[in-house]
Amino acid sequence: MRLTSAMLADSAQVQNGKLYVLGGGFDTITVRSVPTGHPNLSLAMVAEVGPDERQRDLDLIITLVDEDGTPLGVEAKGRLRVGAPPNLPPGSPTIVPIVTPFHNITFPEAKGYAFIVTLNDTELARIKFRVVLVS
Fold first, then answer.
1. Single pTM value for the model
2. Strand locations in 1-135, DSSP E?
3. What is the mean pLDDT of residues 49-71?
């Protein structure tokens, strides 16, 4: 499996195999003070799952770390099992939209952060962003 795209969004959902994103594609969260809480943040991704990965469990873990690699205690774990659409040509990958919402995250400092996406202990992506203090 590989991620063909991944982004932060204010909100996202999957409906009928399609990814719907509101306020997506940003890399900066501006705040007036730290520590600060962020009520809703979604990670929207599109995965390409190869024929050899279908019909088996794929263990995904998403971990939030700061720019020094220190985990913030925010993590999502899930198991994905993908089948093949009935009209898919032999050998073709399956495209799977994935959304992981996070609620009430606390950012202790104005600095860089990243969501690290791993599949079976292999890093697939690192979605970097920053929290910036403004007055």
1. 0.93
2. 2-15, 18-24, 28-31, 36-49, 58-66, 71-80, 94-107, 112-119, 122-133
3. 95
